[in-house]
Amino acid sequence: MSQTQIPILRIGQLLLAGLPNELDDLTTAQFGEELAERLVSDGARGVLLDISKLEIMDSYAARMLTEIAATARLLGARVVVAGMQPAVAITLVELGLQLPGVGTAMSTEHALDLLTNDRSTTGGEAGHRVHPG
Amino acid sequence: MVSDDAATPVGAPLIVPITVEEHLRTARHAVRAAAQRLKLRLVDQTKLVTAASELARNCYIHAGGGELTIEEVVRDDHCRGIRLTFEDSGPGIPDPEAALLDGFSTGGGLGHGLGGARRLMDEFTITTSVTPPTGTAIVATRWVR
After folding, report:
1. Count of beta carbons in the 10 Å neighbourhood of residue B115
2. CA A79 → CA A16, A35, B70, B143, distances in Å?
3. Residue of B31, B32, B43, B100 to mutate for A, most A C-beta atoms under 10 A
4. Among the listed residues B29, B126, B17, the one whose alpha carbon sits nearest the alpha carbon of residue B65
5. Does residue A102 have a pLDDT over 60?
6. Measured between alpha carbons, how far is B2 from B125 in angstroms, rounded to an integer?
7. I need a surface site. Which of A106, A118, B25, B56 has the fewest CB within 10 A?
8. How far apart are the C-alpha atoms of B52 and A108, rounded to whole Å?
9. Which of A26, A88, A94 lies nearest to residue B120, judging by beta carbons?
10. Which of B21, B42, B115 faces A96 most closely, judged by CB atoms?
11. Mind telling me how many Å the CA of A12 is from chain B's nearest CA?
């Protein structure tokens, strides 16, 4: 069993993690659990997930991300994913999936902007997108 | 049940067993490699691999495993494509039409993912039997654009 360890970093009140190019079911489930524990132990208010490397997101991975965001929200934190590849976004839409409750940003910079400004990022069905400027 | 396409296989098929969870990854990688050989555009590769991932997981979770056959095929009009055949000897799908409809608006991927997988492919045929439970075969093809 190849176990991808996804490091979770803390910077101030934020947790940061970069997801690998592909998520297998076990890794995703373990990551979700570890993230929830870290949210509580580190007292984090926000989570930034860099998904710019992620090449494929099927319904399982999408559901796990949605559940991770819902869990974080219950723990008083918000989740923003940054840098989704266009092909992944197009495929998700065609698959009929959205990421309800997951904030989205074009880049980690925009995600930081979302997380550090006091704006709701989890209200919209498909999240909010921050544009440069 | 009508065959999904009138395409002829090119070369030897690649058979990938789907019996343990790790095989979902193996299946994705094998389909990705086939898509790259045919020089599919990145977005088409992504759609094909995502559909394969959905169908492989169904096969693993709902049918206790099965087998994926990956073929390069060519149509009479010389259009090439990749044909995926998922076969299992599981309990079958009671209402395939309903299974294809669900999951579109759930937003959380709570359905079978069948409808989604069908939207990502050009051809899609389900052959399934519940009584007797002789399993399910899903044949899905994506053409090179």
Report:
1. 21
2. 10, 11, 38, 37
3. B43
4. B17
5. yes
6. 8
7. A118
8. 30
9. A94
10. B115
11. 31
